[in-house]
Amino acid sequence: MKNEEALAPILSSQKHLFTSEPQNLTDNDAEYVIKGVKHFFETVIVIQYEIMNTIEDQILSEVQVKITKLESAHGLKLKGMIPLNEDDQIKFNEKRYSYVVLNKDNAQKEFPHINIAQKLTFKITEIDVDTEEDLGSYEEEYTNVWDLIITTKDYLGPSVIMKSFKECWEALGMQGQRDGTLAELN
């Protein structure tokens, strides 16, 4: 089963609210570029980890995002993790996805915050770039991953924020207009 298919039972009864912009969790020129995208639903938040290999002579396999610390003063809880499939590999310039599901059911705030520290574990297979010959494999742990953070601003999806001053002004209607004379200040 594909890891995206494993999300189906969790999300089948959920209404999708919006999706955030990607949050960089590593430098864009790191060996392994990781981004987090937050998908907000009625009672869950799905964190989609996009993992890209930027090293030409390596193939990554057995890739897992491991949560090392989860802090939420507002009651967000880890509901589950959906790793890459066992047979998935990440070759040079390829992307694969892993998921973390957070439960908002028992949150004490309408917009619960969370701070997630994570690392990546995987097997590296070094290859000859010209022949693609396997030169050997070893286990690796990649800890240069920044924390993924959800704060109040993340709940302000695109449908909440108006695109321009003109739209905001027009939305006010007559309420935004005043009759009178503007006095000049000296």
Summary of the model, kept short:
This protein is mainly β and 186 residues long. It has two helices and eleven strands, in the order H-E-E-E-E-E-E-E-E-E-E-E-H.
Write up this protein.
The chain is mainly beta. The protein has one domain (about 5-155): Immunoglobulin-like. The chain contains 2 helices and 11 strands, in the order αβββββββββββα. It has helices spanning about 5-10, 165-170, and strands at about 15-20, 25, 30-40, 45-55, 60-70, 75-80, 90, 95-105, 115-125, 135-140, 150. The strands form 2 sheets. Strands 1, 2, 3, 4, 6 and 8 form a 6-stranded antiparallel beta sheet that branches. Strands 5, 7, 9, 10 and 11 form a 5-stranded antiparallel beta sheet that branches. The longest helix is centred in the N-terminal third of the chain and has 9 residues, at about 5-10.
CATH architecture: Sandwich
Q: Any idea how many domains?
A: 1
How many strand units?
11
| Tally of separate helices | 2
Mean pLDDT across the residues is 86
Order of helices and strands: HEEEEEEEEEEEH
How helix-rich are the residues, as a percent range? under 10%
CATH topology: Immunoglobulin-like
Please write the CATH class name.
Answer: Mainly Beta
Strand content: 35-45%
Biggest sheet architecture = 6 strands, antiparallel
Radius of gyration: 22 Å
Please identify the structural class as seen in this structure.
mainly beta
